[in-house]
Amino acid sequence: MYEFLIKEYIDKLTEEDIKKYAKAYHVDINEEEAKILYLYAKNYWKEFYHNEPHELLDELKEKLRPNTYHTLYKFYKDLKNKINK
């Protein structure tokens, strides 16, 4: 059920959406981070939804500022826990 909804959302997702979403949750991201997150969301959303993609998370940890990564990682884990309930 969720997979269909997520796919529909991801298909329409823009970099601007990434920036707005981050701002709404008080996550400070810069332009480069917005681009990175957009590309990962578009290309790897299934891996994030179905698995615990350690390699992808390690890549993001290297590409994002530490505070940004830790905030988004916590948000990801919280969201993943809600979905899996």
Structure description:
The chain is mostly helical and 85 residues long. The protein has one domain (2-84). Helices cover 82% and strands 0% of the residues. The protein is built from 5 helices and no strands. The protein has helices spanning 2-12, 15-24, 31-50, 54-63, 66-84. The chain is globular and about 35 Å long. The relative contact order is 0.13. The model has no long low-confidence stretch (mean pLDDT 92).
Number of helices: 5
Low-confidence stretches: none
* Molecular shape: globular
* Mean pLDDT across residues: 92
Structural class, by secondary structure, is mainly alpha
Percent of residues in helical segments?
Answer: over 70%
- Strand proportion, as a percent range, falls in under 5%
Main sheet attributes: strand count, strand direction, barrel closure: none
Q: Alpha-carbon distance between the termini?
A: 13 Å
How many E-type strands? 0
Specify the oligomeric state.
Answer: single chain
Gyration radius from CA atoms, angstroms = 12 Å
The ordered string of helix (H) and strand (E) elements is HHHHH
> What's the structural domain tally?
1
Short descriptors:
single chain, 85 residues, mainly alpha, 5 helices, 0% strand, globular
Question: Gist?
Answer:
This protein is mainly α.
Chart the SSEs and their pairings.
Elements: H1 2-12, H2 15-24, H3 31-50, H4 54-63, H5 66-84
Helix pairs in contact: 1-3, 2-3, 4-5
